Amino acid sequence: MYAQRYLPHLPAAGEIVIFDRSWYNRAGVERVMGFCTDEQAKGFLKMVPLFEQLMINSGVILLKYWLEVSPEEQTRRLKARIGDGRKTWKLSPMDLKSYDRWDDYTRARDEMFAATDSSWAPWFVARSEDKKRVRLNVISHLLKHVPYKDVPSPKVTLPKRKIGRYKAADFPFKYVPENY
Q1: Residues linked to residue 157 through DSSP beta bridges, in sequence order
Q2: What are the DSSP calls for 10-31, one per residue?
Q3: What are the distances in angstroms from CA 11 to CA 6, 65, 75, 142, 180?
Q4: Euclidean distance between CA atoms 132 and 144, whole angstroms
Q5: pLDDT digit string (tens) for 153-170?
Q6: Beta-carbon neighbour count of residue 108 at 10 Å?
Q7: How crowded is residue 11: how many other Cβ atoms within 10 Å of its Cβ?
Q8: pTM of the full predicted structure?
Q9: Is the pLDDT of residue 1 over 80?
Q10: How many CB atoms lie within 10 A of CB 55?
Q11: CATH homologous superfamily of domain 2-129?
Q12: Which sequence spans correspond to the domains of the chain?
């Protein structure tokens, strides 16, 4: 069973687990890049709504997010990785092999949504041209779907500060350059 590899990582009561792609790799990367057969991908798409229904019925709150990015933004990000020594480690051979398969990935995404967007486990699409904004939007959305109780917090007041009684030494500090 394909989903068996994920079972040890599913949350116990009170836990939060975040998967980056999770079992949906079968419907996307594995399908497009030929790491599984078309029959395996189609079988997965039939099985996964039932698997997700079992999780929901056992009390798991399942939230599925698709971070949507335009082809132009994907190109910009990949070029930035190529040209920046701090980011080249993020560029994988798979990124390069996948780059010209935009339409194949789009078709796989559409088929995945059609088969797995259910009333009990819907997909939520987040526009992700701006990484900071998408992170804030997804976090905000996620928190609205997880029930919690307000925890009372005591009122905090900063104490009066004793400052100015000591003059700092004129030490020749070696500062880190502020390039950013």
Answers
A1: none
A2: S--TT-----SSGGGGTTTHHH
A3: 10, 18, 35, 16, 39
A4: 19
A5: 999 999 999 999 999 999
A6: 20
A7: 14
A8: 0.81
A9: no
A10: 16
A11: P-loop containing nucleotide triphosphate hydrolases (3.40.50.300)
A12: 2-129
